[in-house]
Amino acid sequence: MVYEKDYYTILGISPDASKEEIRRAYRHLVLQCHPDKNPEIPSGRFNEVTEAYKILSNDQKKSKYDYTLRMSEAFKGTPETTSDRSRSRIGPDLKISINVELEDLIRQNKKTVVIKRKGACKECAGTGSKNKKRSKCLTCSGKGVVPDLMSIIFGGNKCPHCGGIGSYPDRECKACCGTGQAEESFRKTIQLTPHTKNCIVLQKLGNYPVGGGTPGNLIVGLNIKEHPVYSLRSLNIWGNLEISPAQAILGDSMEIDVFGKKEVVVIPINVKDKMIIKKEGAGISYGDRKGDLILRFNMRLPSEVSSEEIELYRKILDIEGGKRKHG
Ligand SMILES: [Zn+2]
Ligand SMILES: [Zn+2]
């Protein structure tokens, strides 16, 4: 028996009203709503009041009604019940991960991935039933959960008859053993952009749910390999540029390769270590926007020096020594 009305509200009383209070409320309302006495009140109201009193004045019917009311209240606040219900309609998400180079994002490359998932069984169109029909589970009235007092305390319980789906196949499909699922694999091309973050969510490409419904999402995790020189921040490319002490003091110009693009960098005179320069517009072009190339100078001492260089460094040292003596 399913009660769709709140009989206590109809009679304007609280659920803990005494027998006498129920009777008084009914007598008052029935006089007020009687179609002969008050023709402007819709007749439905009179019927509602009579129906409410019929249930609430009968001990057996009232306790049955109270039990159903308690159950539906408890189910409203049980999170697992809601997720169980939605799980029966939306399949589980599928997670995969792929390796990506920073250059793939910068060059806006496409990546093709092979997706292996639980798809819909073609024999039964994902219904799990040979005649493509499913029947509502009578044990749980299609809710997927059973009104067990213990299960309410512990937060919901799957219906043992339908496994929480709320329905079962009319005639079990042999190809999928009634699950409605079939293993499938297909290729999917993913477009990468400079804005692609660590994961991409592809709607409805996840697993198909048991018993039919909408597939979950496909979550593609990207393992973006760190580049030894460059990193990406929005459309800006950040990088480190190693320069020698002579370049730092005298200034220079260098041609560098930034992901296949040649860039001329002018090193100003007397550059300090870790100093940053920006080449506007030399970052990534995406749509009508352009990022910058931002370079940090890292002064590096030469690992190998020629005899000629040693000679020159000696001269520098002498000069520095002279400065120290005079200073
Ligand atoms: Zn069930
Ligand atoms: Zn099937």
Characterization of this structure:
- The chain has 3 domains: 7-76, Helix Hairpins; 94-225, Sandwich (HSP40/DNAj peptide-binding domain); 230-319, Urease metallochaperone UreE, N-terminal domain (HSP40/DNAj peptide-binding domain, Sandwich), CATH 2.60.260.
- 30% of the residues lie in helices and 27% in strands.
- The chain contains 9 helices and 15 strands.
- It has helices spanning 7-11, 19-33, 43-56, 59-76, 79-87, 102-106, 149-153, 245-250, 307-326, and strands at 94-101, 110-120, 134-136, 167-169, 181-191, 199-202, 218-225, 230-233, 236-243, 252-258, 261-267, 276-279, 285-286, 289-290, 293-299.
- The strands form 6 sheets. Strands 8-9-15-12 form a 4-stranded mixed β-sheet. A 3-stranded mixed β-sheet has the order 1-7-6. It has a two-stranded antiparallel sheet with strand order 2-5.
- Helix 2 runs antiparallel to helix 3 (43-56).
- Mean pLDDT is 85; it is low at 74-88.
- The structure holds zinc ion (ZN) (2 copies).
- Residues 121, 123-124, 128, 173, 175-176, 180 line the site of one zinc ion.
Record the SSE blueprint.
Layout: H1 7-11, H2 19-33, H3 43-56, H4 59-76, H5 79-87, E1 94-101, H6 102-106, E2 110-120, E3 134-136, H7 149-153, E4 167-169, E5 181-191, E6 199-202, E7 218-225, E8 230-233, E9 236-243, H8 245-250, E10 252-258, E11 261-267, E12 276-279, E13 285-286, E14 289-290, E15 293-299, H9 307-326
Parallel strand pairs: 1-7, 9-15
Antiparallel strand pairs: 2-5, 3-4, 6-7, 8-9, 10-11, 12-15, 13-14
Task: State the gist of this model.
This protein has 327 residues and is α+β, with helices and mostly antiparallel strands. One zinc ion binds next to loops.
